[in-house]
Each structure stands twice: as C-alpha cells, then as structure tokens.
Amino acid sequence: MISALRAFLLLVPVLAQVEFVLACDEGWYLNPETGMCYMMSDKRLSWVESAVACAEMGARLSVLNNASDDSFVRALASILQVNHEVWIGAQAVDRVSHDFVWMGGEMVGPYTDWANENEPNNDGGFEHCVNLFHYNNNAYKWNDAPCYLNYRFVCQKPEH
C-alpha cells in the first residue's frame, strides 16, 4: 500500500503541478481522496508548541481518523525521510482512562493504527500525546509519548 501511495505522491506533482499549487499552500501536500493539505515541519517542538505552531498557520495537528489520511501522512513521512517520531493531533482525555481525543474534540476510534497491541500503554504514567513512531521499516505506527518531548510534527488544513 505504501509503495503505491509513494508512486502516486511522486507522480502527481509532476503530472498536475498546477493543481497542487492551487489546492494547497507552498510546502503543503494534498491528499486528493480527502481534500486535506499536510505540512511536515522541520522544527522540533513539544506537542503543545506543535499545536500552537499549526494554529498560527491556520491549521491543526493532523487528525488521522481514517485509513486514507493515515496512509497519506505515513507515506509523506517516508518520502521526506523523516526517520524519527512526528507529533499528530491526538492526546489523552484524562490521565485515568487513557482515552484519546483528536484536535477538535472527536474521540479517537474506531479507526486506529497503534504500533502494536500494547499501545497505548502510558509507559511510566507520562504518555499522554500521540506521535507517529518510526516502526518496522518506515511503517510509522501510532505511539503514546510524553507531551513535553520535542519532535517534528505534521499539520493539516482543508484545501483552498
């Protein structure tokens, strides 16, 4: 699936460069299936600082509540050779239940893509934010992590 999406991402800008420029701001990439534009930041910030940085660009940390957007962002991270964690827009609702909510208030699920059956695990009692974890050959699966860690992040906003 990722190789097909990778080929798509590599070919579409060449074949329809004007559409990409018009649909998303420079440096942003369009998922044509969902109409969302994504930007992978080079900065490394905490989860909260990442959310603020996205908001300052008229966007939000990415909400990957479907397979299309999740696969697109994973492929984008792979193509851009992001070889470490990337913040996405989910965080724990509270520290007891460890249920997660997306930016905007929607509960995480039913679609999820946790790294394995042990995630989320709230390891050490401090893992309340979600990132894409560089896991098993660039698969970029979800992982809960301490919100204060500085990682790159991915923002999203609707196309123009």
The biggest beta sheet reads:
8 strands, mixed
Order of helices and strands: HHEEHEHEEEEE
Under CATH at level 1, the class stands as: Alpha Beta
> Which term fits the overall shape?
globular
Q: Which fold name is given in CATH as the topology?
A: Mannose-Binding Protein A, Chain A
Compute the CA-based radius of gyration.
15 Å
Q: What is the average of the pLDDT values?
A: 86
Strand content: 25-35%
The beta-strand count equals 8
Helicity range:
25-40%
Which architecture would the CATH scheme give at its second level?
Roll
Describe the structure.
With 160 residues, the chain is of the alpha+beta class. It has one domain: Mannose-Binding Protein A, subunit A (Mannose-Binding Protein A, Chain A, Roll). Helix content is 28%, strand content 25%. Strands 1, 2, 3, 4, 5, 6, 7 and 8 form an 8-stranded mixed beta sheet that branches. Strand 6 and strand 7 form a beta hairpin. It is globular. About 5% of the residues have low confidence.
